[in-house]
Amino acid sequence: MTDSSHKSPEVENDGDFRVHVFSSSSELLEKLHEKWSSVEKQPYPAMYSSIYGGIILDPAMMVIPIDDHMVHRGHGVFDTAIVLDGYLYELDVHLDRFLRSASKAKISSPFSRSSLRSILIQLTAVSKCKSGTLRFWLSAGPGDFLLSSTGCPTSAFYAVVIHHDFSQCKEGVKVITSKIPMKAPLFATVKNVNYLPNVLSVMEAEEKGAFSSVWVDEAGYIAEGPNVNVAFITQDKELVMPSFENILLGCTAKRLLELAPKLVDEGLLKGVATKSLTMAQGKDAAEMMYVGSTLPLLPIIEWDDQPIGNARVGELTMLLSDLLWDDMVAGPDTQRIPVPYV
Ligand SMILES: Cc1ncc(COP(=O)(O)O)c(C=O)c1O
């Protein structure tokens, strides 16, 4: 910072950078509110924190303790569900995966599954958000700064609602094979907060003018994208997804595998399978797509500068996209929980 006339309380004086000390919490709060006062629409209408023991509406207070094991050691797991048209889509499937991740990360929840579920639904209701994402975390909790979490007496649960408008993806994107090493199966199958490889992988793609990337393992088999699964339509019209032993089992991929047999019954697809697929087989596919909660399906038309099929958005891809989209906006009650807005 070079301009000492701006609003920052930190002052630079003759090259001697003096750090401001906040004299009171009210002064600090005022500073935090200053930041949010210029924001036209608050993107995070509500947060839950088990540390506070309630729902927070003030964005300036949506914070996590610095001694939380998730903050300084990455000892936390998370998940994301979608809010669409005032319904929570597949909340229970996300919650099940969340608790499986927590168990593998040796984090016990401070609440029962039904209490977690109730908190998430109440939070969404209070947020008044009808379209967005509901992101939630379980952490080993605050305590100390050591490696072991034995000094963290109580685990912590955080959740936030984020406004976001969704629409069906109809344009195709380009992808690259990631050069960032992929995670070992233990870490890839647990949805934990260590997303540095995922972050670098998507940034690598953006730097190369691609939308995102695809991980291929050392043996040459296709794995997944940095926050999505991948799916293919083979030349003989089979829907194939790489098997999930070593990657994250996506909730959307799982649902797609349940819905896609309808196209087999209609004679449009020849079959639906999860199996190992080499990069060469993937690049030879007729159609390719990303599959993930916030998409839910995104056509891929080029991989490493090579066209996929005829380099146009595939017909079967769009039929699968319609199946998922219809499920999100008008699917059965088991998939969609109505949010009891107040
Ligand atoms: C690494 C990774 N793979 C796949 C997915 C897709 O999972 P979902 O369909 O549950 O969003 C995600 C997103 O959660 C992810 O982070």
What does this entry show, briefly?
The protein is of the alpha+beta class.
Topology at a glance:
Layout: E1 11-13, E2 16-18, H1 25-37, E3 46-49, E4 54-56, H2 69-73, E5 76-84, E6 87-89, H3 91-104, H4 113-127, E7 132-139, E8 156-163, E9 173-177, H5 185-188, H6 196-207, E10 212-214, E11 229-233, E12 238-241, H7 251-259, H8 261-265, E13 271-274, H9 279-283, E14 287-291, E15 297-303, E16 306-307, H10 315-330, E17 336-338
Parallel strand pairs: 9-10, 9-15, 12-13
Antiparallel strand pairs: 1-2, 3-4, 3-8, 5-6, 5-7, 6-17, 7-8, 11-12, 11-14, 14-15, 15-16
What does it look like?
It is built from ten helices and 17 strands. With 342 residues, it is of the alpha+beta class. It has three domains: 1-37, no CATH class; 39-163, 2-Layer Sandwich (D-amino Acid Aminotransferase, Chain A, domain 1); 173-330, D-amino Acid Aminotransferase, subunit A, domain 2 (D-amino Acid Aminotransferase, Chain A, domain 2, Alpha-Beta Barrel), CATH 3.20.10. The strands form three sheets. Strands 9, 10, 11, 12, 13, 14, 15 and 16 form an eight-stranded mixed β-sheet that branches. Strands 4-3-8-7-5-6-17 form a seven-stranded antiparallel β-sheet, with helices on both faces. Strands 1-2 form a two-stranded antiparallel sheet. Strand 14 and strand 15 (297-303) form a beta hairpin. The longest helix is centred in the last third of the chain and has 16 residues, at 315-330. The radius of gyration is 22 Å and the shape is globular. Bound molecules: pyridoxal-5'-phosphate (PLP). Pyridoxal-5'-phosphate is lined by residues 224, 227-229, 248, 250-253, 292-293.
